[in-house]
Design a protein that fits this description.
- By secondary structure, the chain is an alpha/beta fold.
- It starts with a helix and ends with a helix.
- It binds manganese (II) ion.
- The site of manganese (II) ion has 6 residues, from loops.
Length: about 300
């Protein structure tokens, strides 16, 4: 679907409900909130479906857009939601329009605006708002800057393109508070998060001469650090920071005997193939799975799986 086509559809609708994904990140929340703000600027009733997973960092930004319990939607739009399995708790569909950038998008919506090469949904929504309203205002610029910067690790990850940087430049010119947002999201951490990181780094194990680094986040570590869920964003990036690592694995104990695993790789090894051994999947360089075992046993199983996949 063309951007202009999508803009026309939204212009013709009212009472619009915007859906963000489960365990919402800055991209889904920033993109959906910016779209919501722009729709209201056009005189429409628009709200975000109340997502229970919004972490503290994003609450102030999304609060003005959350739907009241009696809101009756006539048109539903999902933003950054690749599949129905990622719907937020309490939402079951259907979805009229999906705006997304995940190559894995399953096509569950009646219509889909998909741009697989875009690093963030925020880039797509920026284009959409420019087509719909001609510009973005300061509030939308902040929200879209959050979207674009968070999905690219503040423009550090390999998904960052010239288009991403043009989008960021446009948003800063439109009044986005890039300094304040960068400080708050990328340069500030709770002391609980930092204590947890310290334990994770200290407890890492390496295999195959340091090419495989495995980090564990146990319930005991969480308790000793006094950490909560909002202290746990992006923990899967830590293992890959160790020099020489080609496969970075993070094992997170969710409850005793049950772990969530995330695998990050370079081009040498397929992360998805490793996770497929445990019924999981994802992208070639970033994948995940669950293992019903404690962290120590999960680590043993993962080392064996990596040896099978990476001969
Ligand atoms: Mn995204």
């Amino acid at each position: 679907m063309e951007i202009t086509e999508c803009a026309e559809i939204l212009k013709s609708q009212n009472d619009i409900l915007l859906i963000t994904h489960v365990r919402p990140d800055g991209d889904t929340l920033g993109s959906a909130s910016a779209l919501c703000h722009a729709l209201r600027r056009m005189g429409k009733r628009a709200y975000l479906f109340p997502n229970r997973g919004v972490t503290e960092n994003y609450m102030d930004y999304t609060a003005p857009y959350v739907a009241p319990v009696d809101f009756r939607a006539k048109f539903t739009v999902s933003v950054d939601v690749a599949d129905i399995g990622l719907f937020p708790d309490g939402f079951n569909g259907p979805v009229d329009l999906c705006i997304d950038h995940h190559p894995s998008n399953s096509g569950y919506a009646a219509q889909t605006l998909l741009r697989e090469k875009r690093a963030a949904c925020g880039e797509i929504v920026l284009e959409l708002l420019r087509a719909m309203c001609g510009d973005v205002d300061r509030e939308e610029a902040d929200l879209l800057y959050i979207a674009v910067s968070t999905d690219t690790g503040c423009f550090c990850y390999a998904n960052t393109t010239a288009e991403t940087l043009y989008a960021a430049a446009y948003l800063v010119e439109a009044g986005a508070d890039n300094k304040g947002i960068n400080k708050k999201i990328f340069r500030t951490a709770t002391k609980e998060r930092l204590a947890l990181e310290g334990m994770v780094y200290t407890g890492m194990h390496q295999y195959r001469g340091g090419a495989v680094t495995i980090a564990s986040v146990t319930l005991d570590m969480m308790e000793r650090a006094g950490a909560t869920e909002s202290d746990c964003e992006d923990l899967s990036a830590l293992a890959g920071k160790v020099k020489g690592t080609k496969v970075g694995v993070t094992i997170r104990e969710m409850e005793p005997g049950s772990c969530k695993v995330s695998v990050r790789t370079g081009t040498e090894v397929n992360a998805s193939a490793i996770c497929a051994k445990f019924g999981g999947g994802g992208h070639a360089m970033a994948a995940g799975c669950s293992i019903e075992a404690g962290c120590t046993e999960a680590e043993r199983l993962l080392v064996a799986a990596i040896d099978e996949v990476w001969k």
